DNA sequence: CCATAACAGTTAGCTAAGCTAAATGTATAT
DNA sequence: ATATACATTTAGCTTAGCTAACTGTTATGG
């Protein structure tokens, strides 16, 4: 049912250029699909970056603003604005660090945490639903590809 | 050098949920990296959606606005605004269709075409550069994964 | 033949995400 | 004590996305 994944036309002579082109075609498509899903999700709608902020704070409680900006790969000012919107919505709590008063300590409110939980479930099950018809071999390929991409990009960060 | 790609910890028991989570983590990262590259590219900077519009018109000359919005997966109003900005920059020409006066006929200007060409080269070689150190096997995995993703999402469109 | 419906785009008004540059306030170091 | 570095915020801008409402054009049905 999914031989396309294992026999993509030019099997054997895959090169970086061709591969790059495909990534460039595909990633924006996937991104928009995820975004649509997030938005249309439930009453409380969440953008992809917002989702990422909440997810980050979910397992790094008390993180600083710069930690958020670094994790998201955006400028501090951008992260500050995003956090601000999330605070206004009551999903994030922003306090000043007790010892370092220039720092900020961010954490999820309970509302934020439960929203996050719902959103995570939705997002995953959205993709998972589509991936359900996918063969284990293709799932493995997908997961591996994600690893490759992350590795490549983290190398970039260092250089 | 790249065994991580073929042995992602939970080799063997990969499932749709886990895979979905990884996609959800990775795709936004890649998207931001591409965006950064596009922006910082040259004098004339291009956003990812702008790139996609120009690329689309590059091989579908005379396309209508709704063709663009459909291809991008956005609302007509959004596409209209995007095209407008590109027209103002002199990269797209917008004329009314000779027979169907409600339609619009879009095409690249020569400036737009050459810009597109430059941008495409940059974008590809940016990714290609990172992919250069990647083993052929991993390239194949990546390409296959992109195929899987596109297939999954096009199924969604039909439903 | 005219009224109405369907279609293609545009406009207006909003939110969010991203940037840069500059400002603020706090800590550190000379 | 002053200068410098650091963490965050503010201000001002562009782009992208949405919805809802509008304009103008073509097609249709009575």
Any overview of this molecule?
The structure is a homodimer of 159-residue chains. The first copy, chain A, has 159 residues and is mainly α. The first copy, chain A, has one domain (17-154): Winged helix-like DNA-binding domain superfamily/Winged helix DNA-binding domain (Arc Repressor Mutant, subunit A, Orthogonal Bundle). Chain A has seven helices and two strands, in the order αααααββαα. Chain A has helices at residues 3-6, 16-40, 48-59, 65-72, 76-88, 110-132, 136-158; strands spanning 92-96, 104-108. Chain A starts with a helix and ends with a helix. Chains A and B meet through α1, α2, α3, α6 and α7 of A and α1, α2, α3, α6 and α7 of B. The first copy, chain A, binds a DNA duplex (30 and 30 nucleotides) through α5.
Record the SSE blueprint.
2 copies of one chain form a homodimer.
Chain A: H1 3-6, H2 16-40, H3 48-59, H4 65-72, H5 76-88, E1 92-96, E2 104-108, H6 110-132, H7 136-158
Antiparallel strand pairs in A: 1-2
Helix pairs in contact in A: 3-6, 4-5
Chain A binds a DNA duplex (30 and 30 nucleotides) through residues 35, 39, 47, 49-50, 64-66, 74-82, 84-85, 100-104.
